[in-house]
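Lay summary. Proteins are chains of building blocks that fold into shapes, and those shapes determine what they do. In this project we predict the shape from the chain. Here is one chain we studied, written as its sequence of building blocks.
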Amino acid sequence: MTTTSETKTAQLAAIEQSGWGLPFRFFQPHNLAFWVYLVGVGGGALGMLRYFGGDGGFYTPALTGGILLFGLYLVPWLVLLRHQNRYTAQPGRLLTTAFAWGGIAATFWIALPANTALLELWTKLGGTAFAADWAAGLTAPINEEFGKALGLVLLIGLAPRLVRSVYDGFIIGAFIGLGFQVFEDVLYVYNGAAQSFGSNQIGASLQVFLARGASGIVSHALFSAIFCAGLMWVLGRVPGERNVVRGVLTMLVAMVFHFAWDDMTGLGGRGPLVTVLPFVIAAIELTFLFSVLRHAARRERAWTRDLLGPEADAGVLDPPLLDAVSGLRKQRKAYRKHVHSRRTARHRMAAASDLAREIARAGGRETDRVAHARAEVIRLRG
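And here is the predicted shape, written in a compact code that computers can read:
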């Protein structure tokens, strides 16, 4: 049986290891990572202005439509990722910084010039037909995945105590990939309008939105979440999490998924298989994603449990609620059945998560905010 002192020691260790509750400070003029980030985002912003600046006025309807449509498309993604950022949650400003890297630096500073050069190279080496079938898949998974992952490396440099676990890499990677995905989709809208010489720009932007929006479920946010989780397994920033073989294989799988998605026509051979292949690949990708998510969350769930251990000892949380707030979907579903109310279970789990966050922010000390969060948990438990 664990004692109160042991659970308190485990709580303090979880706070120290996770870095949860620490603020994110972006402006760090003495940090090289800060200047590399600025160069990347600044270079991406200039590249974006050059790309859209020339004929941007003529294609304003398409560009405006793309920004509005994919801006709305962003909302459910943010709700979903906020739900996933449930354990030792990352600060919003850090995630915004990750999104900006993916959307501006990775897209316009790295991917756009690299893709242009490499696609031309594949055309010269293999011919037009070869390039049409295979060039995208032989190009994008390399420069785009490593370009996006560079954002994670820079965020480790900017917030080394905040970006620690594989789950951190998974969530941050998803935000970087989402930024890349949204900005790239707007780029596709613009290119589509240019290819049709500006005719029916609103209709063209809506067509691109429907096509890219549907495929976006298994696109860059998924690729980057998997790739960056693998990178964190390789780096092993938390004791016991380093697994180089698993990390490298996970990164390679993310690149294979990216390759398969970009070269669907080449893999399907332009036959009937092309209509079925996207659904098969999507099912495989989502299955692997949830497997990575489950393994990546182990350390975070243990930290959450340790953070709330003393509260469970004191009777503030009962064991089923502790299991639910630190567990997976199975434990949350079991808790909903335990209290016979989805709404009650949701409020209690949210209150317990708030209590964990306040304890982390206070560094394990007793504060008014901790006392208030604890009182709310007790109130909801009736």
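What the prediction tells us: The chain has 16 helices and no strands.
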